[in-house]
Amino acid sequence: MTAAHDLVAPPLAAPDLFRSAFRQHAAGVAVITASGSGPVGFTATSLASVAAEPPLISFGVGAGSSSWPVIAEAEYIGVHILGAHQRRLATSFARSGADRFAEPTRWRTGPEGVPVLDGVLAWLVCRIVARVPAADHRVVLAEVVEGSLDALPDGGGRPLLYHQGRFNELRD
Amino acid sequence: MTAAHDLVAPPLAAPDLFRSAFRQHAAGVAVITASGSGPVGFTATSLASVAAEPPLISFGVGAGSSSWPVIAEAEYIGVHILGAHQRRLATSFARSGADRFAEPTRWRTGPEGVPVLDGVLAWLVCRIVARVPAADHRVVLAEVVEGSLDALPDGGGRPLLYHQGRFNELRD
Question: Shortest CA distance to B77 belongs to which of B116, B20, B23?
């Protein structure tokens, strides 16, 4: 006979627990770019503001990712806050193998040689101040030096969100 | 006579640009807790997953915040992913002066003595592995050691979001 308490799921191991918990966590979506022998970039759901004076941001990047060799050496990176209309761009910059800067991606070379994507809610050019080892990832800290919200629609934009493995939007 | 291009807004200084850009960025909402001579905790919109094996998370905390003296010394912290129904809890843990653990906050002492809040989508007890100085803030890296999603409603929960200075929810 099986007692009711035997039907309770066993505790998850830490990696599974971590993954299940973060599927519940919603995040804004950003694309980080940098320039090496050519432009590189990737979709990040770990962008955070860290401090206001001086203005510092942080994000995580896999040390095995295709962008890392360039970001490991770059002095400046681009940070782009994506709008809800940019699911295709976010998907493209999360897909391995594809040329992320080919059509239909629209971009230009911005301040400090950083690739700047068109049509985002906001973009920032930031100077890297630290690359902190964290297992097989690095947490990058960078100071905002330039940027623009010029492409923002009147009244502000609608951000793209990521939750439970798919893109989403705000309710209001 | 004023030419049209004179009406274009001048470039923002970096701190103003940073603030305007991050008002466009949406974030999930978490509460970080720790235990010193008593429980401390604060609302964070900077929680991010960093690496999966071992499972690492990061968040930012002001070195001048009321929680920092405890988090500076703590070995373990609690991470709570808030649901859309927990706006009052998020507001309480963002307000200075109030006793954040008094009624109506429901909590208990969890693993490693960490304060665990009731009714969240997921909670994790994490061991701090680094406190990285970043201007007047610190970026804390911590490894997930235990936790639960037991309070999660069937089919998953609806996360609480923060955007443009106020709380919000997912559209779907």
Answer: B116
Residues in a beta bridge with A34: A40
**Separation of CA B70 from chain center:** 16
The predicted complex's ipTM stands at: 0.92
What residue ranges in chain B does DSSP mark as E strands? 27-28, 30-35, 39-44, 48-52, 55-62, 76-81, 107-109, 115-117, 122-134, 137-148, 161-163, 166-168
Spell out which residues of chain A touch residue B65, defining contact as CB-CB under 8 Å.
none
Cis before A111? omega within 30: no
| Chain A, nearest residue to B127 by Cα | A14
pTM, full prediction: 0.93
Rounded to whole angstroms, the Cα distance separating B172 from B168 reads 12
Nearest CA-CA distance, residue B38 and chain A, Å:
26
Is B52–A18 a contact, with Cβ atoms under 8 angstroms apart? yes
Q: Which CATH number fits domain B28-156: 2.30.110.10, 3.30.479.10, 3.40.50.720, 2.60.120.510?
A: 2.30.110.10
The DSSP line for A96-154 is SSS-TTSTT--EEE-GGG-EEETT-SEEEEEEEEEEEEETTEEEEEEEEEEEE-TTPPT
Which tens digits make up the pLDDT trace of B22-73? Answer: 999 999 999 999 999 999 999 999 999 999 999 999 999 999 999 999 999 9
Task: Examine the pLDDT at A50 and tell me if it is beyond 80.
Answer: yes
